Request: fold
Amino acid sequence: MNLDFSQIAPSMPYILKGLQVTLQIVAASALLGFALGTLLALCKIARIKALGFFADAYTSIFRGTPLVLQLMIIYYGFPQITGYDITAFLAAVIAFGLNSGAYMSEIIRAGIQAVDKGQTEASMALGVPYRKMMSDIIFPQALKNILPALMNEFITLTKESAVVTVIGAADLMRRAYIVGGETYSYFEPLLFVGLVYYLLVMVLTLVGKAVERRLSKGD
Amino acid sequence: MIKIEGLQKSFGKLEVLKGISTTIEQGQVVAIIGPSGSGKSTFLRCMNLLEQPTDGRIWIDGQEVTDAKTDIMKVRQNVGMVFQHFHLFPHKTVLENLTYAPITVKGVSKQAAEQTAKELLQKVGLLQKADEYPTRLSGGQKQRVAIARALAMEPSVMLFDEPTSALDPEMVKEVLEVMKSLAHTGMTMAIVTHEMGFAKEVADRVMFLDGGYLVEDAPPSEFFVAPKSARAQEFLQKML
Reply:
């Protein structure tokens, strides 16, 4: 085995530039996924049956098909229908956002339903309107319980963002692959981005623990 | 004042309330007692529509709450409720528990709400706990905070759903004391309770529910001395 990291040393800044792309995709799609997940979760617990049906169908479809397929449909498929080209970045954000929204909706729904029914009754008895009750009373408590599961989802999203390589977005993964092709040695750049992904996930984990500590002030 | 007419409530096929009519006058303290499963909690919970009655009509301060046109949220602002298991907001401090609804629902200024909250905490003897989170309180303290939280909305009626049933015996008294002093302020109160001593001492009326019917309705001096129905006699024998 002869690994030679010195030959990719000049390419490291190039690879690391992909970190920004990866982070942007992850941050944007996490936000989109969370917003969508919240909305879908509210649909799932709503009294109106049609909303619940829609949200369940949505979840079923996005969990039941490969992420890479969804990404390709959005990137290659939609321009064909609409006539508008879509950037790789935007396609990635939409695909990951829509996909993780499906997963997050289940996490958030479970979190909301796990909050003691008494909290709803106490809010109702005080005349607190539904929206206020959800945002001020139920959601903060649900969030605290589901934080570990949400962090898991963010971590998954961070790693799975590497899939954008297939549509050519210049993220960490794609750049490592390119460098590998240029130097005819793949192992070193791939190991290098592996380390970068790992560190990224470690940072996320630490952030998650810090947030968890903050939210548990009432315990 | 609460007026109830022909109140019925079913859960699926289970008929819990089978037609109750009564009036609770302004300033009256009513103890609602009865064996478990008699429907007394459901009866209470219908008064602020936490349970939607299957049939019958309810008026609070002259406003029909069972009328679909009535804004039930508005009515609830005027009806305080205290639960068996407190249901304080665990992520808010004691003071925030008291100020949240007045600020959010009634639009009271933060300053005024905190002022009122502190006065109420003083009254229930927990001012020193204002900045604590509920988990740091004992059961009796939690229930006193819950009473203060309901009072912070300045309701005209207070409903108590077995307020001492989840408490350790030594904490029952401190909660009953708070309720007693509240009764003396002229608050209209409906209390589902198993505390016969308290009912006897504080209540103006005792309602005895059994099998979904209001079986007896009498002042405690009559009810506890000479209950008319066989069911009430039997119940009291077991309780006292």
About this structure: The mean pLDDT of chain B is 93.
